[in-house]
Amino acid sequence: MKPNYKNWVPKGMLIGYLIGVIVCLIAAVVFGVIGFTQPATWAVVLLVLFALAAFVFAIIGAFMLYLHNAFSYDGSWQLSRIIIEGVAKYVRVPDGGKCLDVGCGSGALTIAVAKRNKNATVVGIDRWGKDYASFSQKLCEDNARAEGVKNVSFCQGNALQLPFEDETFDAVTSNYVYHNIPSKDRQAILLETLRLVKKGGIFAIHDLFTENKYGDMFQFVEKLKDMGYERVELIDTTKGKFMTEKEAKKLFLSGSAILCGKK
């Protein structure tokens, strides 16, 4: 049995763009025939509009296919695997300790952390749902079995209000999750997650920490230090950490990681 970690650019989306191109091209041909065989200006206008729509669908679809191949676990680039393994390297859980992976999706990071911390328990939590219908708790559990990892468990929950008491976990981690959560204050979501970290524990999160999504993250780092957190680091992961700056520009991606320990 082989694990299936899926792709955040699903094949269904790619098929949808392809269907859009085909439908628009057919419509353009139909209105083209009408417009050039009859004196129908409206048909020519529709020909142009549908031809433009087909072009737009084709461009967007081609870029999404490029992203799909870049993040595929089975492709030559395997960027998702590089990022997952890169984040997991920072997570050290003491024997008998517990780690929480927020927004576990298909269980990739949860399982990667569990492999590196075999004497700890790693919990993956996600709301799953219709937005990412191909991801589910069953998929995570199937992937754990496929990897032969037994020190994991998965449950459903919301990152906005995590169902755990303060200082429950020795480590908390997450990858490319919070930027997808509709919110005017994503720093508040980070603080909701940070409350779960035990004293002496570690918090490792990788995301798109752009100012329009998170506000001033350098100011947030100073805020964490003032709150008593230590070893707080904001690392740009697009400068050779998980990908090169050139690769990041090709993918129109940004990426940063926050690492901090709690006194």
Can you walk through the features of this model?
It is a single chain. The protein is an alpha/beta fold. It has 2 domains: 11-71; 79-262, 3-Layer(aba) Sandwich (Rossmann fold), CATH 3.40.50.150. Helix content is 44%, strand content 19%. The protein is built from 9 helices and 7 strands; from the N terminus they run αααβαβαββαβααβαβ. It has helices at residues 11-37, 41-71, 79-88, 108-116, 137-147, 186-194, 211-214, 217-226, 245-250; strands spanning 98-102, 121-126, 152-156, 169-175, 197-207, 229-236, 256-262. Strands 3-2-1-4-5-7-6 form a 7-stranded mixed beta sheet, with helices on both faces. β2, α5 and β3 (152-156) form a beta-alpha-beta unit. α1 packs antiparallel against α2 and α3 (79-88) packs across α4. The protein is elongated, with a radius of gyration of 22 Å. The mean pLDDT is 92.
